[in-house]
Amino acid sequence: MVTSARAPIAEQHEVSRWDRARAGLLVPIVVVIVVAIVCIIVAVLALAQRADTVEFRREQQLLRQAVADRDARLLREVESVIARPDAATAIGNYDRQWVARNLGALLQPFFGDDVVAVIDGTDKVRYARFAGPRDPAAADLAAELADSVDLLRGRLKAVPGDVISVISIPDLSKPGQRTALIQRFTNQPALVAAVAVGSNVEVAGAKAGAPIVVAVKYIDSNVLRDIGRRLQIPDLRRIDGAPATGDEITAIVGRHGGTIARFAWRPFRPSREIIASVLPFIAVAIAGFALLLGLIMRYMRRTTQTIAAGEIRLRHLALHDPVCGLPNRLYFGERLESVINEVRRGGPSAAVFYIDLDHFKDVNDTLGHHIGDKLILNVTRRLSRVMRGDDLVARLGGDEFAIVTICASDSYSLQAIAGRIIAAVCAPYAIDGNNIIIGASIGIATIDRRARDAADILRYADMALYRAKNEGRNRACIYDAAMDADLSHRKLLEGDLLQAVKNDGLDAAYQPIVNASGDTVVGVEALARWTHPTAGEIPPADFIPIAEHSGIIVELGEWMLRRACLDGAGWPDLTVAVNVSPLQFRRSDFVELVERILAETNFDPNRLELELTESTLLGNLETAELSMLRLKAIGVRFALDDFGTGYSSLLYLRRFPFDKLKIDSSFVRSIEKAADAAAIVHAVVSLGRGLGMKVTAEGVENAEQHLFLRAAGVHSMQGFRFGKPVPAGAISARLASPDDYRVGSPDREIALAS
Ligand code: C2E
Ligand code: MG
Ligand code: MG
Known about the structure:
The protein is built from 25 helices and 28 strands. Helix 23 links the parallel strand 26 and strand 27. Among the domains are: 316-480, Alpha-Beta Plaits, CATH 3.30.70.270; 490-753, TIM Barrel. It is α+β, with helices and mostly antiparallel strands. An eight-stranded mixed beta barrel has the order 19-20-22-23-24-25-26-27, surrounded by six helices. Strands 2-1-8-5-4-3 form a six-stranded antiparallel beta sheet, with helices on both faces. The chain binds ligand C2E and magnesium ion (2 copies). Residues 525, 579, 611, 641 line the site of one magnesium ion.
């Protein structure tokens, strides 16, 4: 099989187109999935962070509350000590012994306070005891404790801005009973609880304040460890500088913004737990998405592969011939366009060979389509052998092939290629026991840089093909510009011919048909004649093909039949032969037409002879036979015209009820030149006789042919020797005085000539 090495069909393109479509669908899916995953992760992280913040605020709140609670406890401890019945008197009188014994107990080991002091009604420190060595910063103890004392004495309008009171003070303007402050004490954060003992007392005659017992507890590591343990806040400590990384800090700040204490601790971060608990689910979700994506991709890949394969198959079917697998007309057009473009860009010249098989239709009709298909396959193989690998061989239609090839554009090279093609195609084929011979006509159009488009090139090749067929088949013609003129000339003629047929512009000529001795006219053949108003006489060889090609032949044939019947009425002893074209004969109303014309003209059907060629019978054996039988039934006779030029099948002779066989003039002409032609004529004559047919020889021009044919047993003859086609009047004249037209005896003439 011939394929194209440079086929413009890139099937991979189809796949990549699907890949692109797949990518176009996949990308949004992937983007949506990734965005969804990112959103989930961001949401989880935000939630975790929020949880951390809430937890930090909670711990901060708890811590502050715990410090305040510790201060309140300190206050309750002091109150519990001074609640003894003898406490008011002993402290009021500053009983040193009592104070040292009972208030000292506020210190280690019972309550672990750091400082215990008693302040008298005039705010003097009457007693002070420190848990450890006295802090030098506590030199002015009264000043350090001034805030508590002033609050208890009712001297302040508000709680000082750099301390925090952990209990509410109902009325600041009146002397109070108790205070619990968080404040800086000797430059350290401390809890200071102060309780006024009894009511105000007289001191040295003046109304002095009640004595005040004060306990101070530093917010030190012990206090913080204790709070941390209770609140489960690990590593709680006081800091002054920057915290360690990962630690949280909080500050206890006075109303005026002064920092009293800063604490740091290792915070509990619920985010870690949240993330740790959510992470497996996210991982599962991601894995699920990935799996889903994989499944979608696999499904899409399979689907796209199936679709792409289907498309490739469809495209192949759309672009190739189903019988022989060759590229079809569409594919050929594409390739031709690309070759034209290459040539225009400066590539080497190329040519199109338009091949038409002669007699392919005959094979199809007589031997069946399966043999026809096999023949096409054989032709395909042969063409592929003749052409190079990178030539494109295509089947354009039933019996039409075309080749586009890169080749030299001189006529010698082109004819050489065409010669090879014709030789290959015309060699006999042996298919299923049938020996088949077909012919090939080729039209060649060269592609040069001025070439316009594929349609033009194909039209040129088609014109050249038409010329090749007209010039006698099995030959190749190269397109030249004159053919264009020829085509337009033919188009013009076609119009004029139609007018001539419609307006009685044709003539009928009659050629005598004589008996074997040549002395009696036994019949005439009606032949169409056309005298063009300007171009003069146009031979039937020119206008009959135009009429057949355009369909005008149907009306022309009808006109001729009527004319012949009308003219033939004057020659009651002659048979009138009329040519019938295939197109005309195949019409369903042909039989009715003949009957109608016979009736119209009152012509004796027994004197009418219809001449058919083998091609007339092709394709519709059944209907052809039926039509013939119907006409024969009313007396019409049939002659097989031009026998020997067509398929010359015995089948036609046996199957169809022909009355006469007309040996083509080409055989008659070659009698003298080729011995086998003479043998064939002999054979045909005896064949015709054997089948009960009369045999007529056409184109008899000289005495030698006449003698030979008469000897061979031909019944009647036709040719210039006995009379050229002439108008009806001339036939009548000849019949009136037959002696004026008598030809001599061929034996005598030959004897005289020699
Ligand atoms: P045909 O039917 O085979 O007609 C015989 C042709 O041979 C005629 O050519 C005739 O003039 C020519 N001829 C006869 N004797 C001689 C001879 O001795 N030497 C030479 N060289 N030629 C001879 P014509 O009239 O040119 O017609 C050619 C063909 O055109 C006919 O071949 C026939 O096939 C076709 N034709 C003519 N008239 C009609 C028609 O009315 N209808 C149809 N369908 N075809 C027609
Ligand atoms: Mg004829
Ligand atoms: Mg003939």
